[in-house]
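A reminder from the course coordinator: this example appears on the midterm review sheet, so study it carefully.

Given structure:
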């Protein structure tokens, strides 16, 4: 038996994801662009890491007891991760989602045995926002905890303790830049903190979609949103607890159209089927790489997160009718629908 490729339990399958050199992105940037393959986690997304840490943290604090329930508000991927981790540990799961998220995510959550509650999308200030609804449900359910991924810093600790050291080891201690978008902020803050502990010169860049407020916050000190995006799971209008103290050195704003261009290119040229958040991340990594090259860094290396699988968006990003309804370009291989 090859001990290096065995796991003692299914939860050990979370993390230690491969890192791949993205050839077309590297060519566009003029330097090495690396993608962390988070779709290789059991729940097919980066959110498995946060799910595991949040549940283990609740256990350690004595908040989650045998037979208990984990309740969470999520755009989908965290809910999938929580359902899988909870199943492995004997807990029940209740997930609250905005009803405008992809059908595939909703079907997956139901298939995993979790209870799914959908609510209309609304602003965070509204008491019916999915986060507030899930918090109230947790308070009203005996033996339940609220995962609270946005302000539960066990989320970013997952990336400080796992994602950052994995990247450092995989790139043999030579990494010049890291970037990704923020949803909860756990990934960008945690990876940023973990990498800065190892090398202060690693440049940490936020890649923000349109419709989010963080680009303006880090550029101008003002939480101000402009435009809109159809990307699921990223984009933030407030400074969450996970984002507090995040070591952001620079920021980029990426449109859905540019993100979709890289989704298409990575699928057609490199065989990677990804979601829009990954395309936006790759476009941001190219912008960061070009910045480092222009400053004269020698052969810089930039890493980003390939957040989840494109199979989770077959009814949206990979559906010509949906794309046309959103006034977005249709991938040429999909035809006119």
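Designed residues:
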């Amino acid at each position: 038996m090859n001990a290096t490729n065995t796991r003692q339990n299914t939860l050990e399958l979370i993390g230690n994801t491969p890192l791949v050199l993205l050839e077309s992105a590297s060519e566009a940037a003029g330097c090495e662009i690396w993608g962390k393959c988070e779709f290789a986690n059991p729940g097919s997304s980066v959110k498995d890491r946060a799910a595991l840490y949040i549940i283990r943290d609740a256990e350690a604090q004595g908040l989650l007891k045998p037979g208990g329930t984990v309740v969470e508000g999520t755009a989908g991927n965290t809910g999938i991760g929580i359902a899988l981790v909870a199943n492995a540990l004997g807990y029940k799961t209740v997930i609250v989602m905005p009803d405008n998220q992809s059908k595939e995510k909703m079907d997956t959550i139901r298939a995993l045995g979790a209870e799914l509650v959908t609510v209309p999308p609304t602003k965070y200030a509204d008491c019916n926002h999915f986060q507030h609804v899930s918090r109230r449900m947790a308070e009203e359910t005996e033996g339940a905890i609220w995962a609270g991924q946005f302000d539960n810093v066990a989320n970013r600790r997952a990336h400080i303790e796992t994602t950052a050291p994995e990247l450092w080891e995989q790139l043999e201690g030579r990494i010049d830049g890291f970037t990704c978008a923020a949803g909860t902020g756990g990934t960008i803050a945690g990876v940023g903190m973990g990498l800065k502990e190892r090398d202060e010169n690693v440049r940490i860049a936020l890649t923000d979609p349109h419709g989010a407020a963080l680009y303006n916050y880090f550029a101008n000190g003002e939480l101000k949103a402009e435009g809109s995006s159809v990307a699921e799971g990223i984009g933030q209008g407030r400074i969450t607890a996970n984002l507090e103290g995040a070591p952001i050195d620079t920021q980029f704003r990426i449109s859905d159209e540019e993100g979709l261009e890289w989704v298409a290119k990575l699928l057609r040229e490199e065989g990677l089927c990804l979601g829009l958040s990954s395309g936006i991340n790759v476009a941001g990594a190219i912008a960061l790489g070009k910045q480092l090259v222009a400053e004269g860094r020698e052969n810089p290396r930039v890493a980003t997160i390939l957040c989840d699988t494109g199979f989770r968006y077959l009814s949206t990003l990979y559906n010509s009718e949906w794309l046309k309804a959103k006034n977005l370009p249709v991938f040429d291989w999909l035809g006119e629908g």
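The CA atoms of residues 51 and 203 lie 27 Å apart. The chain has a mean pLDDT of 96.
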